[in-house]
Amino acid sequence: MKINILHLLTLVGGLSLAGTPTFAAPIPKDCQTGGIAIGCQSWTFNHYSVMEAIDKTAAAGGKVIEFYPGQKFSPEHPDWKFDHNASDEMIAAVQARLKKDGVRAVNYGVVGIPKDEAGARKIFEFAKKLGLYAITTESVESIDTIEKLVKEYDIRVGFHDHQRRPNDPGYKMWDPNYVLSVLKGHDPRIGSCADLGHWAQSGLKPADCLNILKGHVISVHLHDMNSFEGNAHDVPCGTGVCDIAACLDELKAQHFAGNVSIEFEYNWMDNVTDAAQAVGFVRGYGAK
Description:
By secondary structure, the chain is an alpha/beta fold. It has helices at 5-11, 50-59, 88-101, 117-130, 143-153, 176-183, 196-201, 206-212, 244-253, 272-286, and strands at residues 37-41, 64-67, 71-72, 81-82, 104-108, 134-137, 156-160, 190-195, 217-222, 259-262. Helix 4 (117-130) runs parallel beside helix 5 (143-153).
């Protein structure tokens, strides 16, 4: 699909695209709040477009954002999807909106990474163009291809955990000990994307899981849940069973340098305040 770059620049305010990152880089300290680079997973705003997700992340006080594949591009063009197949013009327009809002893109996922190197490379090239710190996946079967590209691009990869599936014993990503076994012997830039909420839904204490994966936590999906049950839902940060303070203590002890992405998968149409509360919780924690 051909996209008129001038039209896109009009949508984002005619901002200059000079200075767009062209390589992966560590997350700068000025992206931190309370000592942590915290922002939103754009999935939190999946009822909206990627452009709106950037705006809502900024409104919540987040300084970083993690994109997911397939989010609609803008209110004006909901049929355009933003992912690793995006044109350079779409990427440039997203970069312009990020610059306007003072938000930095740092991660992308959860995305399937194929064993096929050409297909996998397309995802890493997308991450390189955005200057991302990491990519999030569950494609354990592709670890050899992932490792080759991690070394080439110096972009980290975190294996994500969804909740335990009682009717699918073949799904093992919920278990931090399994993830740890997958990582053994591989490049240290390959690690865990620690989803606190899915661990809780699997009946696990998130701080304990973080400890098991000590030294291997690439990024975090921040949830607090109302119970340890599989059907639990998100609640304001610090009010549920995840013991977010203990999780932050563990990350601090590990000298964690990745991103924390708020995923508030509840109150979908009006959850900016919930995301802002999570940012405030982390800010208060860092002020102790």
